[in-house]
């Protein structure tokens, strides 16, 4: 059995659990009209930020990138197709799996450019860029203090983070700003001192080791269970 970074598996599994909880709440509110009077924005952002940051960190351990890219590419297409069939109003045009596929390609292209640079400094630069551009898809940057010209959004470049005002996606992770968080996760490895060990059989670690398949299947399972319960 191959050794693994158990702490990374644990954090990924912990985030997966919260993602399932959030999507369960989302389904209850949007498909079954549950009245849950709470603001889940920051909970959602915690999950999103954790997922992308950990994915970037995991680039340090990735070996078969071509195989992974093929899996992510096919998965992203299937997600768009099936979400369109299930409910067109919640079609996922560029969700987190689409982003991971794109980020892997971008990372491959830029990785060699940063070899001679100080990765600890790059971590802070990447994190700062993420913070500055966090709301670019909403029309502003730098904590909404600077509004961007409206003509930047006329071509609906939603993949880059410049969508039209009418654009919607059931899940949306544009390249900007999330690529900066992805890179900051990768560079954060320079601050760590962790070692591989035999894989932990903790249920959270097991979930973390199978995060992609769980992500792809969990909504289908949730919808099926809720259908059985509520009809």
From TrEMBL:
Swiss-Prot/TrEMBL keywords: Membrane, Transmembrane, Transmembrane helix
Heparan-alpha-glucosaminide N-acetyltransferase catalytic domain location: 4-220
Superkingdom assignment: Bacteria
Record bears the keyword Transmembrane: yes
Membrane found in the keyword field: yes
Pfam families: HGSNAT_cat
InterPro entries according to UniProt: HGSNAT_cat
Name the UniProt record assigns to this protein: Heparan-alpha-glucosaminide N-acetyltransferase catalytic domain-containing protein
